[in-house]
Amino acid sequence: MHSKYPPRNRLAKVLPEEWRDHLTSLGVPRRKYTAICRITLVGGRVVDELIVEEGWIIALTREHLGGTFEQRIDFDPRQITSLELLQFI
User: Fold this and answer.
1) CA of 41: how far to CAs of 11, 37, 64, 83, in Å?
2) What is the rounded CA–CA span in Å between residue 64 and residue 23?
3) Which pLDDT does position 59 carry in this prediction?
4) pTM
5) CA pair distance 11, 71, nearest whole angstrom
6) Which of 47, 53, 85, 86 has the fewest beta carbons closer than 10 A?
7) How many angstroms separate the Cα of 85 from the Cα of each of 6, 11, 52?
8) 68, pLDDT greater than 60
9) Per-residue confidence at 3, pLDDT binned at 50, 70, 90?
10) Are strands 34-41 and 46-53 parallel, antiparallel or unpaired?
11) DSSP of 22-35, one letter per residue?
12) DSSP assignment of 36-64, as one string?
């Protein structure tokens, strides 16, 4: 299930359903939220500040988050092996 409105980043990718359910189990609401997470990918790469809005991966850092922007998400979300919630709004 996707949000009604497109993400602020035109190049955003959808977070897989299993990780969306994991965020929900940690207390994040199903709609209208922004979460900052630390993830580990297959191969050991760690992303310290993954920004997720309403089920969409919109950014890899907190830089340039004002308004609409473009930032390439340079990995396949299906490669996520672990996700740690740091903060949500």
Assistant:
1) 19, 13, 24, 9
2) 24
3) 94
4) 0.87
5) 6
6) 86
7) 23, 22, 10
8) yes
9) low
10) antiparallel
11) HHHHTT--SSS-EE
12) EEEEEETTS-EEEEEEEETTEEEESSSTT
